[in-house]
Amino acid sequence: MPITSNEISVEVNGQKYTLPAGFTLGDALKVSRAPYIAGTAIGILKETAEKRTGTITEYAINTPKGEFRIELKNPDSPSGKLWAENFKEYEGKSAHWTSTEALAFGPFEAEIKPLRGMKSFEAFDVLFGAGGFDPLNTHLIFSRKRHTAEYGVPEDSVFATVVTGRNILFRLSREDTILNIEPVIEWEQLSEKTCTTDLSIPLENGNGIFTYFEVELSRNAPRGAEHFYALTREGTLNVDVTTSSFISDDGLKGEPVPYENFDPRREGAISVRTVGYGTGRIYISIDERPSSLVHSVVGQVTKGIELLKLAENGQKLSIESLPPRWFFWDIALRKSSPYFPP
Predict the structure, then answer these.
(1) Is the C-alpha dihedral spanning 245, 250, 252, 255 positive or negative?
(2) Which of 19, 58, 126, 247 could bridge across to 23 with cysteines, CB 3.0–4.6 Å?
(3) By the 8 A CB rule, do 316 and 41 touch?
(4) Looking at residue 232, what is its pLDDT?
(5) How far apart, in whole angstroms, are the C-alpha atoms of residue 206 and residue 44?
(6) Domain check: are 140 and 90 in the same one?
(7) How many Å apart are CA 175 and CA 44, to the nearest integer?
């Protein structure tokens, strides 16, 4: 049902609500019963024309093995337009075939004109190809390394490149599917944004509200996970430093933590510095960062990355951690903890 002049539509942690006009942030929290700890900051995004109409060139593709991102090389090319208009239709498609050189999801029908002949591809190229040169048997193909093959590609051939999470391509197999695909909105386009503790702020139609963020701790880093649980045992994280690429909480700075997990620090990665200045400091990446021999990755933000991007120095944020701390206590650690004595 369309909303009336006396109503507004807002999203709270991704869930839509229709509220009476004039409702405040506090009213929205009561209606939604959103996870929130009193005194923590809440992020608010206002709907803007730039967000709706800006040209999108980057897309996040989520799989059972993790997320990777592609960037369109030429959004105005036939294949680029085909992707932009139909990418949601590729959700749920399984890996139909894999090789050391490439993997392909599908099949599906697409309006392409496949051409015969061998073509050369670079590692991490993204393209459409038609098995048997039949558009009814089109696949979404990801190149794993430089190679030459005949895939029945259209004239414009490669339309995108994998730009982050490239290691995921080598972990995917025929048992995997594309879970979902989401366009990545450039944050510079979202000029009207705030992060506040003032619950009396009146809401506007189209507001997006973020009250907490959720993290999943890594089983590959039990000591680092324990360190993070100790830091956030009250259900909050302090924002001591913000930059364009990370935020950090210095609450346990100086506490030694062993290096356990060498993983890419993709957006939302949680890492702890294990050597040198800032040992024990917890970082959360809000931009893609390379792996580091002094930053052990202990977890990943799974919900609410928007709140972290909006946070300001000195604020406190609500957090929920998975799995529960006792999992690491009982399963992974099996020894007494310096932070949580028995």
Answers:
(1) positive
(2) 19
(3) yes
(4) 95
(5) 10
(6) yes
(7) 39
Q: What is the pTM of this model?
A: 0.59
Q: Which residue has the higher pLDDT, 122 or 193?
A: 122
| pLDDT above 80: residue 148 | yes
Helix (H, G, I), strand (E, B) or coil at 54: coil
Closest C-alpha to 4, from 22, 21, 16: 21
- What is the C-alpha separation between 28 and 25, in angstroms, rounded? 5
- Between 151 and 334, the more confident residue is 151
Instruction: State the Cα–Cα distance between residues 291 and 154, nearest whole angstrom.
Output: 36
HSE, CB side, 13 Å, CA atoms: give it for residue 181: 21
In terms of DSSP bridges, do strands 316-322 and 212-217 run parallel, antiparallel, or are they unpaired? parallel
Residue carrying structure tokens 């100790």: 230
Query: Could you tell me the pLDDT band of residue 290, with boundaries at 50, 70 and 90?
Result: confident
Please give the tally of structural domains in the chain.
3
State yes or no: pLDDT of 201 exceeds 50: yes
Phi, psi of 68 (to 5 degrees): -135, 165
Q: The domain spanning residue 248 has which CATH number?
A: 2.40.100.10
Do 125 and 154 meet the contact criterion of CB atoms below 8 Å apart? no
If DSSP codes are grouped into helix, strand and coil, which group holds residue 258?
coil
What mean pLDDT do residues 236-259 have?
93
Q: What is the DSSP string of 15-30?
A: EEEEEETT-BHHHHHH
Domain that holds residue 171: 58-183
